[in-house]
Amino acid sequence: MSTKLQDTLDQAVNALRRELGDNLFSCCVYGSAVRGNSIEGVSDINLLVILNQSTAAAHQAVARAIGEQKIIDPFVLARRGFERSVRAFATKFASIQRNYRVLFGADPLAGLKVDAELEKFLCEQSIRNLRLRLVYAFITRQQNKSYDKFVMRNVTGMFVQFSEALRLSGTAMPPTFEARIAILEREYKIDGQVLRDLLALKKSPRRFTEDEAVAWHDRLFPVVDAVLAWIENNWPSAPVK
Length: 241
Prior knowledge:
There is one protein chain. Helix content is 61%, strand content 11%. By secondary structure, the protein is α+β, with helices and mostly antiparallel strands. A four-stranded mixed beta sheet has the order 3-2-1-4. Strand 2, helix 3 (56-66) and strand 3 form a beta-alpha-beta unit. The chain is globular, with a radius of gyration of 19 Å. The model has no long low-confidence stretch (mean pLDDT 92).
């Protein structure tokens, strides 16, 4: 972790402690900052903030502390109902648990166990939702002018969810996205260059021309669809208990 990144984290934690006082139960950093593949000036700093009491006043305090820091992406929860939140966001928490560091307070993920079948259900749900929103963003691109923004905003989510599906089926995944591409390409029978181009796009975001938007969708949609086809072929459909 770079000195600049650590300084930003220290400042964020100090501000949260100052604004929240005893109401701050825990603060953890997770994601690329912990994996070691964050891109300075591009990657968000993901913070899990757990409050003893989640109230409107507490949310104002969090906003005062870190709300103006565009680089910080806060995930704010309360201690009450935390286990139910873990269940509701099982896939996200399973991913957080692999790459996180406690910055302040208790370790909220110590001993955390996520039900594998529930995680599969939510992983598939997330990818189906991604496909739905990808199609919507493309079809409405003329009125919303946001297809390129949608693609760039969801690069990390694609890598995480595509990797998660394989991990849930027993495939070991390396920590960096770049190292995962060959595995994703082999298992899903997809064009790995699309994934490499996505990472390059994340590093250097830009607007698409109309022709580029069409070309990107022609390449990207089959990748997302192939992941869902793999899930349909490898995971039996069963009701979540």
